[in-house]
Amino acid sequence: MELGVWGIIKEYPSLIGLIPMVLYIILAFKKGIDPVIPLLISIVIGWLLTGNGATVFGQEVGTSLSSVLGQVGFLSMEGAGLGIVLKEAGVSATLCKLIANKLGVKTQKQALITLMVCQFILATCVGSGVSAAAIVMPVLLPMLALTGVTPVAATVAFILSGLAGMLLAPFAAPNIMAMSLTGLSYPQYLLWGAGPYLIVMLITAVILSFWIDKKAKKDPNGEKYELSDAEKDMTAKPTQKEKITTIAFIVTFALCIAYAIAFRQGMAFVIFVLPFLAVVVAVFSRMGVNKACDAFYTGCKNTISVFIICVLYQLLVDVVNVAGGFEALSNLFVGLVGSSPSKSTVMLMGTFVGAFGVNGGAAAQMQIIHELFLPMIQQNGLGMGLWSIVLVAGSYVTSIIYPNATVLAPMGIARSKDFKNMMICMWISSAIIMAFCVLYCFIMPMIF
């Protein structure tokens, strides 16, 4: 896709190209509006600005369906489908009772901490926060509901602890890219860049999830989880069939995770694993083909809006990129740098340009940031250890400061529609992380 002859924007790049994204963020905060509506309006405005017609629109929809965002949306539906199958087979309730009773989880804070620990560990193993959330949510849902955790708090916990887990994942694409660009080993990368960042992110996750949970409970019309009577009874003992099915699920799940780690499998493998786990559960629970399919379809149906949102958001990002909106913003930041920038200035500019001016996958963002500032790095002798945290912050902050799959998919998986409170938490967390990065950029170059 490229600029059309009849579009309002004539030159690339243009800050005007950011209008659709800004409009989307504004409209998405309107109460009572379906989340698809702001996307459609923003996309239409974007197509008018760039001058593209219906044929190009249809082609881009096809591209979006096969994009990473499209895959994430599909993954969200699969996770919800597995969740219903686990519920019907009694696996969710069995696992939850085991966790809650053995660990003594009785309060909202304990439940949120449990969720974050599970999400962090699993995201580290599979290298994807969204994939981890899709697996964790069906298992922990009864515990979250029984302790009174709000869906928006679960969303915030999923997003931030998942991102922290990804930073620890040795096979995650962004980490591999960062180590390749800087020449750092995995321990060095953790020490200088990923480690400090993920610690701040985990602390922020705990604080904000507790805060937003308390805030959301004050809304009399706020979201809450609903459970069946069987799920609510935490003292009821599981049947022999439920125990066997749960064991089969845990063993299969563990083997799949081990395989994913050993052979460095990514999202494509998780897309296979979720329905495969559903089949295993259906077989051991003797649920029956028709009932298992109906349960899986029911879960998918409940989250089809997330799939549509992911596909449409890819269209929105494509429109902004065609107009050069993000690149124009990046150029604006770079233009503020003097002829002889200090190490701290280069680090700060790299962080802010990456966070606000470069959009896309984290690995791709790292490469763009690195190439953009490489002459300045070489000019003042900035060490790759210090530069590594710029690559991390400049790419990961983007994933939470703009509405995208990183935040929209967990919101759907956590069954929340509270976009406003979720984004407020993301912006607060971004401000905290950026403040930390500013201090890091000023203090560390003076020491090393």
What's the SSE blueprint?
Layout: H1 19-28, H2 36-50, H3 54-65, H4 68-89, H5 91-103, H6 108-126, H7 129-147, H8 151-168, H9 173-182, H10 186-217, H11 229-232, H12 240-262, H13 267-284, H14 289-302, H15 304-323, H16 325-334, H17 343-357, H18 362-380, H19 384-396, H20 398-401, H21 405-413, H22 419-447
Helix pairs in contact: 1-2, 2-15, 3-15, 4-7, 4-13, 4-14, 4-15, 4-21, 5-7, 5-12, 6-7, 6-8, 6-10, 7-8, 7-21, 8-10, 8-21, 8-22, 9-18, 9-19, 10-19, 10-22, 12-13, 15-21, 16-17, 17-18, 17-19, 17-22, 18-19, 19-22
Fraction of residues in H or I helices: over 70%
Largest sheet: none
Count the DSSP helices.
Answer: 22
Shape descriptor = globular
H and E order: HHHHHHHHHHHHHHHHHHHHHH
Average residue pLDDT: 83
Class by SSE composition? mainly alpha
Pick out the low-confidence regions. none
Please give the number of β-strands. 0
Rg result: 22 Å
Beta-strand percentage range? under 5%
How many structural domains? 3
Terminus-to-terminus distance = 45 Å
Describe the structure.
This protein has helices at 19-28, 36-50, 54-65, 68-89, 91-103, 108-126, 129-147, 151-168, 173-182, 186-217, 229-232, 240-262, 267-284, 289-302, 304-323, 325-334, 343-357, 362-380, 384-396, 398-401, 405-413, 419-447. It is an all-alpha fold and 448 residues long. It folds into three domains: 15-65, no CATH class; 68-305, no CATH class; 324-447. Helix 7 packs parallel to helix 21 (405-413) and helix 8 runs parallel beside helix 22. The radius of gyration is 22 Å and the shape is globular. It is a multi-pass membrane protein.
